[in-house]
Specification:
By secondary structure, this protein is α/β, with parallel strands linked by helices. It has helices at about 5-15, 25-35, 40-55, 60-70, 75-80, 90-120, 125-140, 145-155, 170-175, 195-205, 220-235, 240, 250-255, 260, 275-285, 310-330, 365, 375-380, 420-435, and strands at about 160-165, 175-180, 180-185, 215, 265-270, 290-295, 335-340, 370-375, 390-395, 405-410, 415-420. Helices cover about 50% and strands about 15% of the residues.
């Protein structure tokens, strides 16, 4: 039978803290690395809580203070009988035992929770993903890597661990995306988020010749996304495609000339095949895409019914945690599209900020980068700023400064073009600054 507690270790740590021969500063340091829940014995946990909160390391003074507080279940015998002659050399071994037993109890509890959730009929993939996140957290808290191990990990990385963003200028700014990252692209309705995501998917597949890319969209039908792909690749405006005014044989031939599409390295996931994170995890665990897009997070099904704005925020936060866990577990990059709150167009400066991200929750915290898809003509009118001017605005960057990236766009075809002319980039940036600053 697995031993879930060590009364010897718990008493020994208290004995160290009550040892009059040990310097008080060292005892305080010990208190900072141990929490009351590490103790299984309720009496030992109670004693430690009082030692830590009152910073008292003398038995008699401690007992007097506990009595003065009142409402205690402890007795003087509980404190008096603690063996107090524990040395610093012995302490580290006892702390290791204490942490080990705490982790064992957490694993047993996790197993019970998983068993109960499966018995209750919860989705097994969602249960497994949650369990994996809990295991990662447990490991992170108990196993510390040495500086040399961390250095070896960094030095063993190669270029394949970093994926091109799909655009040369963005790569220059941030160096690319590391596997395990979550990237958020936010924007108002009509600001080309989905169109940009489709272009980005092709650009990433072309610049990273071996990767597989998935597009999960709850906003558009799979056939509508395919029509947007046709427009981009074949140069046919989307209205003509939707109205069936195009040469289908030309399209079939042209599409097969595009290697990422023809070899199925870019896949559109039918929205009917997923509703929540658990379904996405099931597909991702099976096919192991290197990059996956989600359009957009606010449309994902929640694990339980949300009755208030607070519930929505919590649920989206939980979805973000699970998606982050999925990216780490499958060593992939997740690119998540997000809506912003309504009302940006009513401001004097019509530009969204991070605080405008709808039901943001942990979106801001867990995203390595947050970009805004910004099509200013939608706010200011295309007579003020041309319809081919588009900006990708980096509001949060983990390893670089914020920046604006002007681009040219053909919204009808869904083609985004980087601007290599420095003077033109400066001119477009100055034009935008005049509007929003």
């Amino acid at each position: 039978m697995i031993e879930l507690a060590s009364w010897e270790a718990e008493e020994a740590i208290l004995g160290y803290l009550l040892n009059p021969a040990i310097d008080a500063e060292k005892k305080l340091q010990t208190c900072t690395i141990i929490e009351p829940e590490y103790f299984e014995s309720s009496a030992f946990q109670n004693i430690f809580e009082n030692i830590k909160s009152m910073r008292v390391f003398d038995k008699i003074v401690l007992w007097d203070r506990i009595q003065a507080r009142g409402h205690t279940t402890l007795e003087w015998k509980d404190i008096k009988d603690i063996e107090e002659f524990v040395t610093e050399t012995e302490l580290n071994a006892y702390i290791e035992i204490l942490l080990d037993r705490k982790q064992r109890r957490a694993l047993v509890k996790m197993g019970d929770d998983i068993r109960n959730e499966i018995a209750r009929g919860d989705d097994p993939f969602e249960v497994a993903l949650k369990g994996q996140n809990q295991l990662m957290n447990l490991t992170a808290r108990t196993q510390l890597e040495t500086n040399q191990e961390l250095l070896d990990k960094v030095l063993s990385e190669d270029r394949s661990d970093i994926l091109s963003t799909g655009y040369e200028l963005i790569d220059r700014f941030i160096g690319g995306y590391a596997r395990g990252m979550i990237i958020t692209v936010a924007g108002d309705s009509g600001h080309l988020k989905t169109t940009f995501a489709l272009d980005k998917a092709f650009q990433m597949a072309e610049r990273n010749p071996k990767i597989k890319v998935a597009i999960f969209s709850k906003e558009m039908l799979a056939t509508d996304l395919m029509k947007k792909q046709i427009a981009r690749i074949c140069g046919i405006p989307t209205p003509l495609i939707f109205s069936q005014q195009y040469d289908k044989e030309f399209v079939r031939k042209k599409m097969m000339e595009v290697e990422p599409w023809a070899s199925n390295r870019i896949r559109i996931i039918n929205p009917n095949s997923f509703s929540g994170v658990a379904d996405i995890a099931k597909i991702q665990m099976t096919h192991r895409f290197d990059v996956w897009f989600l359009d957009f997070i606010q449309l994902l099904e929640f694990a339980r019914h949300a009755n208030s704005s607070s519930d929505y925020n919590i649920q989206i936060g939980q979805n973000m945690r699970n998606l982050q866990g999925l990216a780490l577990a499958t060593k992939s990059v997740g690119i998540i599209l997000s809506q912003v709150k309504k009302g940006v167009e009513q401001r004097r400066v019509m530009k969204p900020t991070i605080s405008d991200i709808e039901w943001s929750g942990l979106i801001k915290q867990l995203s390595s980068y947050i970009f805004f898809s910004y099509y200013p003509g939608k706010y200011y009118g295309f007579d003020t700023i041309e319809a081919d001017q588009y900006y990708l605005i980096a509001e949060k960057t983990r390893f670089a400064e914020s920046f604006w990236l002007p681009m040219k766009v053909d919204a009808g075809l869904g083609v985004f073009t980087e601007i290599t002319d420095v003077d033109l980039r400066e001119t477009m940036s100055a034009q935008l600054r005049a509007l929003i600053e």
